[in-house]
Amino acid sequence: MSAAGLLGLSIGELSGRLSRRQVSAEEVARQALERVAATDGRVGAFLRVTPERALEEARDSDRRRARGEVRSPLDGVPLALKDILLTEGVETTAGSRILAGFLPPYDAAVVERLRAAGAVSLGKLNMDEFAMGSSTENSAFGPCRNPYDLSRTPGGSSGGSAAAVAARQVFGTLGTDTGGSIRQPAGLCGVVGLKPTYGRVSRYGVIAFASSLDQVGPLGKTVRDVALLLQAIAGHDPRDMTSSERPVPDYLAEIESGAKGLRIGVPREWLAGGAEPGVERKVRDALATYERLGARLVEVELPHSKYGIAAYYLVAPAEASSNLARYDGVRYGLRAEAKGLKDMYGESRDAGFGTEPKRRIMLGTYALSAGYYDAYYLRAQKVRTLVRGDFDRAFEKCDVVAGPVSPTVAFALGEKVADPLQMYLADVYTIGCNLAALPGLSVPAGMHEEARLPVGLQLIGRPFDEATLLRVARALERETGPLPAPAEFA
Amino acid sequence: MSLSIEEVRRIAALARLRLEPAEEARLAGELSAILDYVRLLEELDVSRVEPMTHALAGEGTPLREDRVVACLSPEKALANAPAREGNYFRVPRIIE
Lengths: 490, 96
Hints:
The complex is a heterodimer.
Chain A: H1 11-19, H2 25-43, E1 46-49, H3 51-66, E2 78-82, H4 109-116, E3 120-125, H5 159-166, E4 172-177, H6 183-188, E5 192-195, E6 215-220, H7 223-233, E7 263-267, H8 277-292, E8 296-300, H9 308-323, H10 341-352, H11 355-368, H12 374-397, E9 400-404, H13 420-425, H14 431-435, E10 440-447, E11 454-461, H15 466-480
Parallel strand pairs in A: 2-3, 2-4, 7-8, 7-9
Antiparallel strand pairs in A: 1-3, 4-6, 5-6, 5-10, 9-11, 10-11
Chain B: H1 5-14, H2 21-38, H3 74-78, E1 84-85, E2 88-89
Antiparallel strand pairs in B: 1-2
Helix pairs in contact in B: 1-2
């Protein structure tokens, strides 16, 4: 077995070994913790490792198994969580200095659900501050690196969640996706990442960024792993009023049904030279594979795609400026000493927020301020209706929409930090899915031939049709296989 | 479109952000560039388009019964307070 040892297995394979008692959950957790200790100095995926807690959860899992009370295929499986998800009694910062030392008084709904499924949490993962960014360089606690090339970013904002899976530190992770923050890092790190339909997964206990866009979702090495994780976290939660009451299907039921007979929509606008040629080539290769598998490619139009980033960078900052108003130094988080209340607010927020949150708070406050609301926020919300209409029309002709995840492969650390607008443009293909509240998935399309870095294929589905996305992604994976692990982490 | 330093200061005051002078100047430039970019939306005639006010019409926001449920204990709610006094959050003087 490779140096990654057990950590090279899929969740399904590990689950089999656990159930045949070939290995104990405690031994698996120990190996995962050792691997994190040995590799994370180079990767920077973790903000916090919780070894005692992990080993305790693993031993609980072993005791359950001995009693014949296994809870799910995730029982005893080591995972890790983006640091935007509240974990009771375990420091949660959202990558921000303003929340350093914050000990949540309760668990996020998804954390409860993973625990109920028997999963073991190894700790909390690095991210752009308050999920604002596309490279994880906006983390207040240091950047994370791409396991395929440590001089490059893993993407973001869930960069730690993607890098931890790619470096074989854990078997799967949770991230959040507001404008591409699961799919983009998954694509750049060569793993599978799914943003569920808005309302599919509870956001109770998820630190809010842009509430009309935020969703929680899984990342894993394989499509089946991601399906298993989604199965565990999806479903209604009365504590999140945007949570849907629709029943959750069995995501594995149709996953091996292949692509034959499906119609795959290819947006004319997404392969019109906007992506780097080597990226476009891998996407076209994947489309050709689908055709060979018996799927039919149909051209669709998303004429409002080019307005997506502009609409997003009004809606998201506007909602962020409102959500981040709660960090005022009164109830939790950093407080700067000052004479009066108003100065205390200003000094605390100045000391606690990094550059990107400040920029977005300013932009959002401006867009919502008296006299500008109609011209900015309201107009952007109307454009969302147009973006959604594009997808509705596309889905009359096809079952899924397919295209690139990102216009380029992983970029170098520092390459885009000086120019916020350039960084925002990295999200050009992922944002529409959030604006339209649809489910989206990133699956490896292969390695870029010159750069030798992963390229992701993005699949977008009808509302609540995650099952078809998983099925289509699995059909490609069955042909191409999951990407080989990064050489340094194989 | 160009945002003046005065405008940046006005927004910072609304947002309760105290910015350094160098930050004000940088943000004036960056926000102007972003606002220029989002003017792209002015190309579209949205006069007859409804805004998306709920991400998925018909999903979520169901009504529930109005009844008392458990909530955080005062001890838990106050556990992260930067300063507290008894069961209260302590803050600096409000009336100057």
